[in-house]
Amino acid sequence: QSVLTQPPSASGTPGQRVTISCSGSSSNIGSNYVYWYQQLPGTAPKLLIYRNNQRPSGVPDRFSGSKSGTSASLAISGLRSEDEADYYCAAWDDSLSGQVFGTGTKVTVL
Amino acid sequence: QVQLVQSGAEVKKPGASVKVSCKASGYTFTSYDINWVRQATGQGLEWMGWMNPNSGNTGYAQKFQGRVTMTRNTSISTAYMELSSLRSEDTAVYYCARARVKGGFGELAPYYWGQGTLVTVSS
User: Of B46, B113, B116, which is closest to A101 when you measure between CB atoms?
Assistant: First the structure.
């Protein structure tokens, strides 16, 4: 069972802004970096955000991350059809001594 | 460019073991930690553990302790994940994934991913 909680779904029309939340605790998000992944159907996950709000090269600046206390968020602005995918947050958990992933959010572009 | 190439799909009977390989190229294999993550069909990502290819040190998720073993062969830049006492619930795609940078546990999160290996457990 995941210790990071995400909404199961989110949606928007092209061009809109969509935000996905990730709720954790003091032992994971509260004390460690948050990462965000995008997973297109049938493919391996792709890192979108590292260290809470940093984008790897090649990731569009439409994707942005933030963190406050024991929660984090991923925002997708200027939503595009190719953004339709599953999104996962992740963080190290000091109590579990392991990496934990969020429950995942399916983004639909209407 | 960094590449992680995993071994092919496996079909195993309940109670058997499976060993998945992950061959790294495009970087110094011993310099970056390797994670193993699995995903059952239609389900989320589940972290299984990590290995430091230089020292061989490992850390396993509590759920898999006693059943999983992560090893490496540095001469061929290959990491391995062996899971024993397989049951139907272990049917999943198994991924190896390299950390983005060298660092503490907070930097362990996967960056480069293998293509995944489907392991099917069925009698």
Answer: B46
Calculate the dihedral angle through the C-alpha atoms of B86, A86, A29, A22, rounding to the nearest 10 degrees.
Answer: -120
Q: CA nearest A98 in B: which residue?
A: B61
CA distance B42 to A53: 28
3-class DSSP state for residue A70?
Answer: coil
Asked if B46 contacts B37 with a C-beta cutoff of 8 angstroms, the reply is yes
Q: pLDDT tens digits, residue range A58-100?
A: 999 999 999 999 999 999 999 999 999 999 999 999 999 999 9
pLDDT tens digit string along B29-54? 999 999 999 999 999 999 999 999 99
Instruction: Output the average pLDDT for chain A.
Output: 96
Short-list B26, B11, B49, B110, CA closest to A89: B110
Of B95, B109, B113, Cβ closest to residue A99: B109
Distance, CA of B63 to CA of A31 (rounded, Å):
23
pLDDT score for B102: 83
User: pLDDT tens for residues A93-103?
Assistant: 999 999 999 99
Closest CA to A53 of A82, A16, A83, A89: A89
With a cut of 50, list the residues of chain B below it in pLDDT: none
Residue A80 has a CB neighbour count (10 Å cut-off) of: 12
CB contact under 8 A, B95 and A99: no
DSSP B23-92: EEESS-GGGS-EEEEEE-TT---EEEEEE-TTT--EEE-GGGTTTEEEEEEGGGTEEEEEE-S--GGG-E
